[in-house]
């Protein structure tokens, strides 16, 4: 297991380096950050001075090597716009995104798996047909449309929940959380449900398909014939063998949502990392974008490693040599 994790970590480092390299090359064709900072009516001399101050007058490979060297020492550079360390800007927004994604993934996982098991037991019941129709809608309807509809119903018409923002937060050490205030929890509901809808539908359909296949296996028929309690047959013998693809999907979703929950954060004006990335792209803030991408790659790689470890927990027969 230790050798496997070390090998995955080395692969992860290579992925991060390649991703950052591509970013540096692509940003050379996305406009001049110096021009964005000084404005379109600035003189050539003013633009040249800003480029020299930011180090943009140097060759691309020199800029990249300096960035990697500084990153190895914990310095990811400063934002071109705010002149604040890029890593600090991102980490300041990280708690908001992490809490939003955690609630969304937990909601999608427990609801999706539960409904998937329920539907698989009596697939032709009218109630279960209705649930599957709703899950098809959850897969098909875009996230931004779901968010807008929820805002119209629960915020505009009914006035039950706030439509934007994070609400009141409390500083706990280095972490600013909204879990400890009523306002923070109320503001969390709509964006978390919006973010969870697609993942919930996918997990529901994945669980249903797996359960339908497993319930026809001989060992399940033997368990029924032995007179085992239905709960034990369904959850211990059947569901446990379905959980590996479900856990895989959940782990991938968790990493991807933390890195790319841009649409939901924009709709609800959630002060997370996705909102920061969108603003940085508009402003051509290269250090923030590259730092964000490297952090996103690290999060996704870590989530994949955790999923691989969970495989051995769910199924003890799985071992990594």
Which properties best describe this structure?
MetI-like fold, two-stranded antiparallel ribbon, single chain, 13 helices, mainly alpha, 321 residues
The number of domains is 1
The CATH architecture can be named as Orthogonal Bundle
| Beta-strand residue fraction | under 5%
CATH top level assignment: Mainly Alpha
> Order of strands side by side in the largest beta sheet?
1-2
What are the segments in which pLDDT stays under 50 over at least 5 consecutive residues? none
Average pLDDT across residues?
81
Put the structure in a nutshell:
This protein is an all-alpha fold and about 325 residues long. It is built from 13 helices and two strands; from the N terminus they run αααααααββαααααα.
Explain how this protein is built.
With 321 residues, this protein is an all-alpha fold. The protein has a single domain (86-314), classed as MetI-like (MetI-like fold, Orthogonal Bundle), CATH 1.10.3720.10. 75% of the residues lie in helices and 2% in strands. It has 13 helices and two strands; from the N terminus they run αααααααββαααααα. It has helices at residues 2-27, 33-38, 44-54, 60-72, 86-121, 126-140, 143-157, 182-214, 218-225, 230-260, 262-267, 273-283, 286-314, and strands spanning 170-172, 175-177. A two-stranded antiparallel ribbon has the order 1-2. Strand 1 and strand 2 (175-177) form a beta hairpin. Helix 5 (86-121) crosses helix 8 and helix 9 (218-225) crosses helix 10. It is globular, with a radius of gyration of 24 Å. The model has no long low-confidence stretch (mean pLDDT 81).
């Amino acid at each position: 297991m230790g050798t496997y994790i070390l090998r995955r970590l080395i692969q992860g480092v290579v992925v991060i380096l390649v991703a950052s390299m591509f970013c540096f090359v692509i940003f050379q064709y996305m406009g001049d950050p110096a021009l964005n900072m000084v404005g379109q009516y600035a003189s050539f001399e003013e633009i040249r001075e800003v480029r020299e101050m930011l180090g943009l007058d140097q060759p691309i490979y020199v800029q990249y090597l300096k960035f990697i060297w500084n990153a190895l020492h914990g310095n990811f550079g400063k934002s071109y716009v705010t002149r604040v360390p890029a890593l600090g800007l991102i980490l300041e927004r990280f708690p908001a995104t992490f809490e939003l994604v955690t609630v969304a993934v937990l909601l999608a996982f427990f609801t999706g798996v539960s409904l998937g098991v329920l539907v698989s037991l009596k697939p032709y019941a009218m109630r279960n047909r209705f649930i599957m129709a709703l899950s098809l809608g959850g897969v098909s309807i875009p996230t931004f449309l779901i968010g807008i509809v929820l805002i119209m119903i629960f915020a505009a018409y009914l006035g039950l929940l706030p439509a934007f923002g994070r609400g009141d937060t409390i500083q706990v050490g280095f972490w600013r959380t909204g879990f400890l205030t009523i306002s923070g929890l109320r503001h969390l509901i709509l964006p978390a449900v919006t973010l969870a809808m697609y993942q919930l539908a996918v997990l529901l359909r994945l669980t249903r398909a797996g359960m339908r296949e497993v319930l026809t296996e001989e060992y399940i028929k033997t368990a029924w014939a032995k007179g085992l309690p239905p709960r034990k047959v369904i959850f211990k013998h059947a569901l446990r063998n379905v959980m590996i693809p479900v856990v895989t999907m959940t782990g991938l979703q968790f990493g991807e949502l933390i890195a790319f929950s841009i649409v939901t954060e924009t709709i609800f004006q959630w002060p997370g990392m996705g909102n920061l990335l969108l603003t940085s792209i508009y402003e051509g803030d290269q250090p923030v974008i590259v730092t964000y991408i490297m952090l996103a790659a690290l999060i996704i790689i870590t989530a994949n490693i955790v999923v691989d470890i969970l495989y051995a927990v769910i199924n003890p027969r799985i071992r990594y040599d």
